[in-house]
């Protein structure tokens, strides 16, 4: 997409601030949504900045707060993209192509696959608790890092 033909993230932000006075939109070096602070963090210099802004706003409008298992995170991501694509895309006249959505979801799928593979035998494990997986083949348990919604791209790039 040719960025010179796109309206700037700045003009979109002004609209969003008017439309959602209960939310705070704050510049950051990454995209994420903080339910605790009711703040959407936006990296206006990123590729697809407008699209990702609508994605984070979707998390906010869908009241996404927390999740316990990685597969739940993937579902939150799917739901946020669906809302951005079907509702916000038209409202703010920002096209969201399916490739961008699938690339984003693939990042999460790869991340979950890597986390859920047993370090001892590579069998796919089961997430027993928030941060603990168990191997169904060799019974090995392993811990995984905490993940923040939408903060995964920085590790994947
Ligand atoms: Zn194993
Ligand atoms: Zn997200």
Largest pleated sheet: 3 strands, mixed
**Hetero compounds:** zinc ion
Q: What integer value in Å does the Rg equal?
A: 17 Å
Note the run of SSEs as H and E. Answer: HEEEHHHEEEH
Helix content: 40-55%
Residues in β-strands, percent: 5-15%
Topology:
Elements: H1 9-19, E1 24-27, E2 32-34, E3 39-42, H2 49-61, H3 70-91, H4 98-116, E4 125-129, E5 132-135, E6 141-143, H5 153-156
Parallel strand pairs: 1-3
Antiparallel strand pairs: 2-3, 4-5, 5-6
Helix pairs in contact: 2-3, 3-4
Bound molecules: zinc ion (2 copies).
What can you tell me about this protein's structure?
The protein has 157 residues and is an alpha+beta fold. The chain has one domain. Helices cover 44% and strands 15% of the residues. The protein has five helices and six strands; from the N terminus they run αβββαααβββα. Strands 1-3-2 form a three-stranded mixed β-sheet. The longest helix is centred in the middle third of the chain and has 22 residues, at 70-91. It is elongated and about 55 Å long. Mean pLDDT is 87; it is low at 153-157. The site of one zinc ion (ZN) has 8 residues, from loops.
Quick recap:
The chain is of the alpha+beta class and 157 residues long. It contains 5 helices and 6 strands. Strand 4 and strand 5 form a beta hairpin.
Characteristics:
157 residues; alpha+beta; three-stranded mixed β-sheet; three-stranded antiparallel β-sheet; 44% helix; elongated; binds zinc ion
